[in-house]
Amino acid sequence: MKYFSTRGGDQRLSFEETVLTGLAPNGGLYIPERIPSLPEGWRTEWKNYSFAELSVAVFSLFISPNEISAEELRTLVEKSYATFRHPDVTPMKKLNDKLFVLELFHGPTFAFKDVALQLLGNLFEFFLLRRNARKAVGGKQEKLTVVGATSGDTGSAAIYGLRNKANISIFILHPKGRVSPIQEAQMTTVTDANVHNVAVKGTFDDCQDIVKALFADKEFNAKHRLGAVNSINWARILAQTVYYFLSFFQFQSQLPASTSTDNAEIQYVVPTGNFGDILAGYYAKKLGLPIGKLVVATNSNDILTRFWRSGKYEKADSSAPVAEGAATPAQGSSDGKQATDSSGVKETLSPAMDILISSNFERLLWYLAYENAPGATDPEKHASACSTLDNWMGRMKANGRVEVPVEVLETARKDFIAERVSDELTLETIKSYYEGDPSYVADPHTAVGLAAARIIAPSNALNVHQIVLSTAHPAKFSEAVSRALEGLPGFNFDRDVLPEEFKGLLEKEKRVIDVEKADISLVKDVIENVAAKEVGAGAGAGSV
Ligand SMILES: *Cc1c(COP(=O)(O)O)cnc(C)c1O
Question: Where is the composition biased (Polar residues) (predicted)?
Answer without folding.
Answer: 330-344
